[in-house]
Amino acid sequence: MATQHSRSAARLMMAPAVILLLGWMLVPLTMTLYFSFKKFLPLRGDSLGNGLEWVGLENYSRFVGSSSFWPSVQATLIIVGSVLVITVVLGTLLALLLDQPMWGQGIVRILVITPFFVMPTVSGLVWKNMFMDPINGILAHLFKFFGAQPLEWLSQASMQSIIMIVSWQWLPFATLILLTAIQSLDSEQLEASEMDGAPVLKRFWHIILPHMSRAITVVILIQTIFLLSIFAEIFVTTAGAFGTKTLTYLIFQRVLESQNVGLGSAGGVYAIILANIVAIFLMRIVGKNLDR
After folding, report:
1. CA-to-CA distance for 18 and 68, rounded, in angstroms?
2. pTM for the predicted model, two decimal places
3. Which residues pair with 38 in a beta bridge?
4. Does residue 49 have a pLDDT over 70?
5. What are the tens digits of pLDDT across the range 116-175?
């Protein structure tokens, strides 16, 4: 049992890491809030901030008053929701498949999780040039092989293309977490249900899926945190065109157009608010599952 002395020593040893972590988070957040009320134009020669001008809520009203604001929020939520559904469903199926005994099981598992280690910029460029190119892409050759007209993915199906690319990146993560959850399931339960003559679907629905519920909520929570800030895949593929402009990309675009860091900071505050709303909603779901 831990004594008061050991607790104090543990707090003392953890203090530097906690202070560093708080500083790492609070300093950028404080600067973002500060600049969101200012007109700061470092790209126009004001690199030292000598011309900082207090504008109050003007940056906030300009950003939210933009015709692209609500479409960007909608695009962000569509991408996040679609990727979550795809990765959870396919991740569950892949986890069930990888849990079955097979030849070269270790190699197959390594190959399945490999896309997760590819940088977003690289994966976006690979999909754009190798798979989705309407002339020389692999998908274009498949369409031609079956006698169909190749699809210009990034213009005719831009949102679907972004969702496909991002899902390909995050599917290994979901698969790995869900596979771990399946492997922690007591095999005696499955054997007993099998001996009782329960069909495969009923075993999955009543035994495997409830056991995976906590892992699924963890996957949803972690992926949502990262998906709300998706940028690189859009930057190297559609550049925000054809309805794929997310809130993060809109912030980037507004800063470049106006060269006003204050306007971008106001957009960053809106992004933080959106992330917190989604996080609170998800935490309620996670809390309900963890309390079961």
Report:
1. 39
2. 0.83
3. 54
4. no
5. 788 888 888 989 888 888 888 888 888 888 888 888 888 888 999 999 999 999 999 999
Tokens of 215: 């892992």
**Mind listing the domains of the chain with CATH numbers?**
51-290 (1.10.3720.10)
Burial 144-162 (b: 16+ CB within 10 A, else e): eeeeeebbbbbeeebeebb
Q: In terms of residues, how long is the chain?
A: 292
Q: Pick from 121, 139, 117, 120: which is nearest to 130 by CA?
A: 139
Task: Return the ∠ at Cα 147 (arms to 141 and 152), rounded to 5°.
Answer: 50
Q: Are 152 and 135 in contact (CB under 8 A)?
A: no
User: Following DSSP, what letter does each residue of 249-289 receive, concatenated?
Assistant: HHHHHHHHHH--HHHHHHHHHHHHHHHHHHHHHHHHHHHHH
Rounded to whole angstroms, the Cα distance separating 117 from 105 reads: 20
Identity at 229, one-letter amino acid code: S
What's the rounded Cα separation, in Å, for the pair 195 and 203? 11
Q: Residue 50 has which token pair?
A: 């000598």
**Residue 60 Cα distances to 70, 100, 204, 228, 278, angstroms:** 14, 54, 49, 20, 20
pLDDT tens for 204-215 read 777 777 778 888
Lowest mean pLDDT among 18-32, 45-59, 61-75, 251-265: 45-59
Tokens of 160: 């679907």
